[in-house]
Amino acid sequence: MTKIRIAIQKSGRLNEDSLLILKNCGISIDNGKDQLKASSRNFPMEVFYLRNGDIPQYLRDGVVDIAIIGENVLIEKGHDIDIATKLGFSKCRVSLAVPKSVKYESVKDFEGKRIATSYPNTVQKYLDEKGVKADLHIINGSVEIAPNIGLADGICDIVSSGSTLFKNNLKEVEVMLKSEAVLAVSQKISEERKAILEKLQFRIKSVLQARQSKYVLLNAPNDNLDAILELLPGMRSPTVLPLAEKGWSSVHTVINKDKFWEVIDELKLAGAEGILVCPIEKMVL
User: How much is the CA Rg of the chain, to the nearest whole Å?
Assistant: First the structure.
């Protein structure tokens, strides 16, 4: 049976998030400790555990059909590789940073300076766009120590919370790009495997939509029902059911989590009571 071949990061947070979204898609992976290749028992899929920086070449060569990878890695090493879906997790920034003691005004301050980085292509493109010339020192691994040992005047690295920069007495001064995990696709994927990819994308879309939404149930006085319904979004429209107590209705709907608290506050002011909020596991639209 034809199986789609997916690459995910061998270790680290992206590995955990990748396995989680596959699990939420109902895909069970039979993998043992330190195993570099595994199969799914209930979906036509093989999983390859690879070094993050190697994944773009595996996609380019057609060794794997798809991959869950950071968008920043594709920008650095795989700009010719297509992105099928942005996945919304493992978000980070690719930024320039300098020691806290350095007075910083603009990217022009990097003129003639030394920058340590694992993202030379990304940095060079950014500096070229800004008309800045700097010396790049390519380091594979932790670059935050470079200014402290006199190897560089600043660094370029991925930033999530900023705690690593803080611990190394650095400050973020330029955000070059924002990144998140994406589902990337090899240009050499076969038609048979494209059909499997479509099924996977359908499942991923259902999971991602559920993550962005909350299921809300509330009691509404009928006198204020129209005003309450005007506040509520929904997949099509809210569901309204009469309660046993006369003059009251039960309202069911879905609210985007980004607008959740704002909508809840407005519902309370409009007279809604007994508001229950439930997570959604999947949303099939």
Answer: 24
Instruction: Tell me the CA distances in angstroms from 226 to 87, 168, 215, 242, 271, one per residue in order.
Output: 36, 56, 20, 14, 11
d(CA 24, CA 88): 14
Tell whether the model's pLDDT for residue 285 goes beyond 80: no
Q: Are 131 and 216 in contact (CB under 8 A)?
A: no
pLDDT tens digits, one per residue of 126-160: 999 999 999 999 988 789 999 988 999 999 999 98
For 36, half-sphere exposure in the C-beta direction (CA atoms, 13 angstrom radius) is 2
Q: Which residues pair with 95 in a beta bridge?
A: 157, 175
Is the model's pLDDT at 47 over the cut of 90?
yes
Question: From CA 212, how far away is CA 74, in angstroms rounded?
Answer: 25
Confidence of residue 235 (pLDDT cuts 50, 70, 90): low
Question: What pTM, to 2 d.p., does this model score?
Answer: 0.83
List of E strands, 41-145: 45-50, 66-70, 82-86, 92-99, 114-117, 135-138
Identify whether the C-beta of residue 271 lies closer than 8 Å to the C-beta of residue 221: yes
